[in-house]
Amino acid sequence: MACRIEDYALIGDCETAMPPRSGHSNLVRLVIGQRGRVRLRMELLVRFGYGVLVPWVHRQEDGTLRAIGGPDQVVLRTAVPLRGEGESTVAEFAVEPGSVTAFTLSYAPSHLAPPDPKDPEKALQETERYWNDWSKAARIEPGEHRAAVMRSLITLKALTYAPTGGIVAAPTTSLPETLGGVRNWDYRFCWLRDATLSLLALMNAGYYQEAGCWRDWLLRAVAGVPAQAQIMYSITGERRLTEWEVDWLPGYEGAKPVRIGNGAHGQIQIDVYGEVMDALYQAHRGGLASSADAWALQMALLDHLAEIWRAPDRGIWETRGPERHFTFSKVMAWVAFDRGSQLARGFGLDELAMRWTEIAREIHQDVCANGYNAELGTFVQSYGSTWLDGSLLLIPTTGFLPAEDPRCAGTVRAIEGRLLADGFVMRHDPAEVQTGLAHGEGAFLARSQKPVDQRAGQAIPGA
Fold first, then answer.
1. Is residue 118 over pLDDT 80?
2. pLDDT per residue over 283-310, tens digit each?
3. Other beta carbons within 10 Å of 428
4. Rounded to 10 degrees, what is the CA torsion of 201, 205, 209, 215?
5. Based on the number of CB atoms within 10 Å of its own CB, is 27 exposed (0-12), middle (13-18) or buried (19 or more)?
6. Would you call the peptide bond into 257 cis, given omega within 30 degrees of 0 as the criterion?
7. Per residue in 130-162, pLDDT tens?
8. How far apart are CA 257 and CA 248, in angstroms?
9. So what's the pLDDT on residue 447?
């Protein structure tokens, strides 16, 4: 990652690299002079515990600056003279043509020795080589969108945690859906649903190693009894993600509360089973080697789903109101058994495939009978409801019904009429009031993208 610095006296580069993890986390910054001369100031303000804990900072014999607080430590290495100023560390230095000023910030648990020094320029070269090699392996059709697709894939890859294979939904917490709003959630966890969507994008571009690593993470995270499976875990597979509020931080643009942890980890969201089964099915089709343990887990999950798919749940949007029979959840339950039956048939397990096919047929009939409102001509958010939901647009993408089916076409028309606002598709129907939180949400961009015919590069008419 690079940022250009332009000044009346200097034109230069500030190269910042976050090298692939090799035991410790490192942030490397190189300030490279190209023309002119200017004095710069560096300021380092370290606070642990979400900004509340001032660390003990001391200088090592080799000039390394070490900050320790509780279980954490960060180490700053630079040739620039450092000095304390209040409760921060500062440095002032000049940049001239051809000069390279390096800063390396490393993290490690505080009970360990300081991380070994890292050569800044070598780290930058290694980082560039790693990402260039990874990007070259992508199977993406050439065209005007290739650069944007590659940029998105790099972002998804950067959200993976190499030591475990976990994939975080986002590296942020408490960014509000609307400025000043209260829907400020902590997304720094591994949602099974979100991870499978990332994996599908990566696999579509030819990346299957990530799917294998995530499958191994999933086996460790779920483990035990399928009934105890959660919708989300930490990057290491931890289950207890207790939600609490940090009242001493103001939040983005003043949005409150700032939340750590996520209470949704204890919810039942039936759609997750479908997303997991579909991702593993697609990985198998793409050539990922079979795993006896993974297949055993899939069978156990479907056995459990066979017992609970008729129950209400919290849905894809993780409502904190009453549980309901969400239509999309039932559709994804159908996906789980549909993909499972195809896998079983491929493994020569015809009897098991027939049993799962019959359950899928039962779910399909149930959804069409209870999730579709013939009077409105559209699928609805939940059984017996008249509300719409942005997730219903995904029905034809699952194979549940073809896009040209009148029920799917009617759903698209209804959503265009009621959920489209300023060109963006809202998740919830404006008439919905029982979500457990005050309304006034932002649109999810993923709900608002027109399907594109890659051959013509044009939006599909009527989509």
1. yes
2. 999 999 999 999 999 999 999 999 999 9
3. 19
4. 30
5. middle
6. yes
7. 999 999 999 998 888 899 999 999 999 999 998
8. 10
9. 57
| CATH architecture of the domain covering 2-111 | Distorted Sandwich (2.70)
- Token pair 């000095």 is found at 83
Q: Do residues 332 and 315 make contact, with C-beta atoms less than 8 angstroms apart? A: no
Q: pLDDT of 315-372, one tens digit each?
A: 999 988 899 999 999 999 999 999 999 999 999 999 999 999 999 999 999 999 999 9
Per DSSP bridges, beta strands 166-167 and 160-161 are antiparallel
Can you tell me which residue has the tokens 């070994």?
116
| HEC sequence for the chain | CEEEEECCCEEEEEEEECCCCCCCEEEEEEEEEEEECEEEEEEECCCECCCCECCEEEECCCCCEEEEECCEEEEEEECCCCEEECCEEEEEEEECCCCEEEEEEEEEECCCCCCCCCCHHHHHHHHHHHHHHHHHCCCCCCCCCHHHHHHHHHHHHHCEECCCCEECCCCCECCCCCCCCCCCCECCCEEHHHHHHHHHHHHHCCCCHHHHHHHHHHHHHHCCCHHHCCCEECCCCCCCCCCEECCCCCCHHHCCCCEECCHHHHCCCCHHHHHHHHHHHHHHHCCCCCCHHHHHHHHHHHHHHHHHCCCCECCCCCCCCCCECEHHHHHHHHHHHHHHHHHHHHCCCHHHHHHHHHHHHHHHHHHHHHCEECCCCEECCECCCCCCEHHHHHHHHHCCCCCCCHHHHHHHHHHHHHCEECCEECCECCCCCCCCCCCCCCCCHHHCCCCEECCCCEECCCC
How many Cα atoms within 13 Å fall on the side-chain side of residue 74? Answer: 16
Reported as a single tens digit per residue, the pLDDT across 56-103 is 999 988 889 999 999 999 999 999 999 999 899 999 999 999 999 999
Nearest to 18 by CA among 114, 112, 138, 103: 103
Give me the residue spans of the domains in the chain.
2-111
